[in-house]
Write a structure and sequence with these properties.
By secondary structure, the chain is of the alpha+beta class. Among the domains are: about 350-440, Nucleic acid-binding proteins (OB fold (Dihydrolipoamide Acetyltransferase, E2P)); about 490-585, DD-peptidase/beta-lactamase superfamily (Beta-lactamase); about 760-815, no CATH class. Helix content is about 35%, strand content about 15%. It contains 24 helices and 26 strands. Strand 17 (about 615) and strand 18 form a beta hairpin. Helix 9 packs across helix 10 and helix 10 (about 240-255) runs antiparallel to helix 11 (about 260-270). The radius of gyration is 39 Å and the shape is elongated.
Length: about 850
């Protein structure tokens, strides 16, 4: 048997056990490989989606601590609101403060399933996507309230499909981080609703003039239509469209069971009931210059918008307590305005307030865009829409129209001639006031000025008027206009002399005074007002009371001009070179600085910087400025508890010797009693002050007051030119202050100026300055014997003065003759001028 050479090969395979074996068996299946590939592709797609849409999205965590931009609210000295600084008017509320019907109205209008979805309404998205693709329009619609919060607060308002995807992602994240009420609170506080109102509470004021809690169902429904486009449903221009949309919202509320049929029918039948666009109620007329200066200071300190930090003026929600006294502000404003009108009366019409080209019937928008307005009495700004031979047709900012007849515009045109009516043309914006059922032209004064009132013990500015009307001229002449103060600088010059050895009784020669200023400038000779060469030696007091220039420059030269301008710098008037002309007011300064300087003199030389802001609180009530601020515990207690009285910390800086400052105030009381401001004497209260008239004259001044408040003003043209040779501080500026003071000081106690420790009051002869025996000061302003204030050991040697019988009889006869002369003048209807005595004494500067 032959051998069998066939062979059989065997391969043995040992299968793995466990997971490895299972994985191997699965890998052999085609569908497993397919699933793996699809998973990898899905991961790549997710990574790409994240890279494109989700990677750089903002964190929703900041919504937990989100604080919406809020306006800064300004309050007066009594705590009442007077203004707000806002680009977005908003009042922040919590969810519990929203009426339930309001919430339902917004849900019906914007997101019916808000409490059911998790941030995204898929059915709505599909419908909107189909609509956008079919009609080839931009991405719109189907945004839930949560998506709108994401858009408004986190990613912006870009119109694109990518933005919609980002909204959806953020909406999911927001729903995971916040509760539904928290989301609604963000939405209702943030949403823009037109008329510069953001959030529903601000919109309630803007459209209905009421708080949200006072609105009814129909008004809630109107607010709910506004997120779709406030301008589309403006109640003035698109009332029918607004009513139709409101009807839709009410019907949706009925369909969703939010209201019943009776409520629906009643609300649907109501008119819109909105109010005209109006100035926010916290903006008080007449405070424009003051609150604008506050705004400037706040911006310098905290910045303007949210990019500047959490306490910005237009987003930080600050609460600002100011020193504005609305009563004092009204008196200062009225007195200054009346004074400007008195001076300007009879000089003619100075032209229109502005001009704008009118296109067709669009005069209303043209007028509104000029932002020209008036808040003086019943005056109104009007745009001339048409002119014919007998009348002009006027349009007003509230949409009303009126007529101005030719006869009501017959004042001459200043410096041109002809009548104002002949010069008026369509597009002119003019000032008018009602006369019967028509209007008459009014002339806004071309001259201007400023008035500041300050509390001397603290430096708090109680009133500030920087011109005739802030709405016409925002330039604040109280703080921004640099003017020559004229003789109002003299009390500061003489204060420097008092600090350096002179006394109120020092004899100074009122005579020619010349100085050599170098080869280039030559010799400079000074003169008194009116060119008077002088009247010989007199006391310092007389020189101030009669405002003698020659005595002032002589005293400044004896003191040393470096010392004089050094005091001007310390007291805050300005930095000047040591030239004698600056002793007569040649240096430029502002009314606010001069008033503050006088408060320092009254306050015994202790300086408090003039302030408009008492303190600033953040939106949570914490005082953030001034730094290290502490409330005065017990200062506002209604009753004394028997413990030591609270005393606020005095942070003043001593810049003038206390006794020298009081001496100057005591001297300047004589300016009121027998000097250049005797027009104020019949106010019959302790008062000091000084008039000022600069060369030209181009400006006239008065600054002065009492221990309770000190005020100061000037009037002059913005481009300086002569006011007329008759213009003087005592005849124009002081009467303006008097009109203010009559009302401002009414009811205030007559408080004398308090002398500091060490002052010695001595009876002196008013003419010679020598102390006297045998006679006492009287109430007569021109009494020969007066009280004078001296520093210790500085009073002159005393002399004995006793009236002889002949002198007493002569004085009595002179007094009787003066009384008879005054009675005769009154009977003849004559009016004695306050300047008569001054002219006899050589005039004033």
């Amino acid at each position: 048997m032959a051998d069998d050479d066939s062979s059989v090969n065997f391969r043995l395979r040992r299968e793995a056990d466990g997971l490895r074996g299972l994985a191997g068996r699965l890998w052999g299946r085609w569908w497993v490989k397919l699933l793996l590939v699809l998973g990898v592709l899905a991961g790549i797609a997710y990574a790409a989606f994240f890279a494109l849409f989700a990677r750089d999205l903002p964190s929703v965590d900041k919504l937990r601590v989100y604080e919406p931009p809020l306006p800064t609210n300004v309050r007066a000295i009594d705590g009442l609101p007077i203004h707000s600084y806002a680009r977005e008017r908003r009042v922040e509320l919590s969810y519990n403060e929203y009426p339930p019907l309001l919430v339902r109205a917004f849900l019906a209008a914007e997101d019916k399933t808000f409490f059911e979805h998790h941030g995204v309404d898929y059915a709505g998205i599909a419908s909107a996507l189909w609509d956008n693709l079919a009609r080839n329009k931009r991405a719109r619609g189907a945004s839930t309230i949560t998506q709108q919060v994401a858009k408004n607060l986190l990613i912006g308002n870009e119109h694109s499909y990518s933005r919609k995807l980002k909204e959806a992602i953020l909406a999911y994240r927001i729903e995971d981080s916040l509760t539904k009420p928290q989301i609604l609170e963000l939405y209702l506080n943030q949403i823009a609703l037109g008329r510069n109102a953001f959030g529903v509470e601000a919109a309630s004021y803007a459209y209905f003039g009421k708080e949200l809690s006072e609105l009814d169902l129909a008004q809630f429904a109107y607010l709910a239509i506004l997120p779709k486009g406030p301008s589309n449903y403006d109640p003035d221009r698109h009332a029918e469209r607004a009513l139709a949309r409101r009807h839709y919202v009410l019907a949706e509320m009925l369909r969703n069971g939010f209201i019943d049929q009776s409520h629906y029918a009643q609300a649907d039948a109501e008119p819109l009931g909105t109010v005209p666009r109006q100035t926010p109620k916290t903006e008080i007329a007449g405070t424009g210059y003051f609150v604008e200066e506050v705004r400037r200071q706040l911006i310098d300190k905290f910045g303007e918008d949210g990019n500047a930090g959490p306490y910005s003026v237009y987003a930080g929600g600050l609460w600002v307590r100011t020193s504005l006294d609305q009563r004092i502000q009204e008196y200062a404003q009225t007195a200054l305005r009346n004074g400007l009108l008195r001076y300007d009366r009879g000089r003619g019409w100075s032209g229109p307030l502005g001009h704008a080209d009118i296109t067709g019937d669009a005069w209303l928008s043209t007028l509104l865009n000029t932002h020209i307005g008036l808040d003086y009495q019943d005056w109104r700004a009007a745009i001339v829409t048409a002119v014919d031979s007998s009348s002009a047709t006027l349009g007003f900012a509230n949409g009303e129209t009126g007529t101005m007849p030719r006869s009501a515009a017959q004042m001459p045109v200043r410096e041109q001639g002809g009548t104002a009516f002949a010069a008026i043309k369509p597009g002119d914006i003019i000032a008018v006031a009602p006369e019967g059922d028509q209007f008459a032209l009014r002339a806004v004064p071309k001259i201007s000025g400023a008035f500041v009132v300050e509390e001397p013990s603290t430096g708090r500015v109680m009133a500030m008027q920087g011109g005739f009307d802030f709405r016409l001229q925002a330039f604040n002449r109280a703080t921004q206009a640099l003017r020559q103060p004229g003789s109002t600088i003299k009390p500061i010059v003489y204060s420097a002399a008092l600090e350096n050895g002179m006394t109120p009784a020092s004899i100074i020669v009122d005579g020619p005074f010349c100085v050599f200023q170098g080869a280039r400038l030559g010799q400079k000779c000074f003169r008194n007002f009116g060119g008077s060469a002088g009247s010989g030696p007199h006391t310092m007091r007389w020189g101030i009371e009669q405002s003698r220039n020659l005595m002032t420059v002589r005293a400044a030269a004896q003191t040393g001009m470096p010392k004089v301008v050094g005091l001007m710098d310390r007291i805050g008037v300005g930095k000047y070179p040591p030239y004698l002309s600056f002793a007569l007011g040649a240096g430029e300064t502002t009314v606010a600085r001069m008033v503050n300087a006088y408060t320092i003199l009254e306050n015994h030389g202790q300086a408090h910087q003039g302030t408009l802001i008492d303190f600033v609180q953040d939106r949570h009530g914490k005082v953030i400025w001034p730094e290290n601020w502490h409330a005065c515990e017990g200062c506002n207690a209604p009753d004394w508890n028997g413990k030591p009285m609270p005393r606020p910390v005095n942070r003043g800086k001593q810049v003038v010797n206390a006794m020298s400052a009081y001496q100057m105030v005591h001297i300047a009381e004589g300016v009121i009693q027998r000097g250049t401001a005797t027009v104020l004497r019949d106010l019959d209260r302790p008062m000091f002050g000084k008039t000022g008239t600069n060369s030209g004259p181009t400006d006239v001044w008065f600054i002065g007051g009492t221990p309770q408040m000190i005020g100061g003003l000037y009037i002059g043209y913005d481009t300086p030119h002569g006011l007329g040779g008759y213009a003087q501080g005592g005849t124009i500026a002081a009467p303006i202050f008097k009109e203010f003071a009559v009302k401002a000081y009414e009811g205030l106690p007559k408080v004398p100026f308090r002398a500091p420790a060490g002052i010695r009051m001595v009876r002196i002869d008013r003419a010679s300055g020598k102390p006297v025996y045998g006679a006492w000061p009287t109430a007569d302003p021109k009494a020969p014997v007066i009280w004078e204030a001296f520093k210790p050991e500085s009073e002159p040697r005393r002399v004995f003065h006793r009236q002889t019988p002949e002198e007493a009889a002569a004085a009595a006869a002179a007094a009787a003759a003066a009384r008879a002369q005054a009675a005769q003048a009154a009977q003849a209807g004559e009016q004695r001028k306050d300047s008569d005595f001054l002219q006899r004494e050589g005039g004033i500067y």
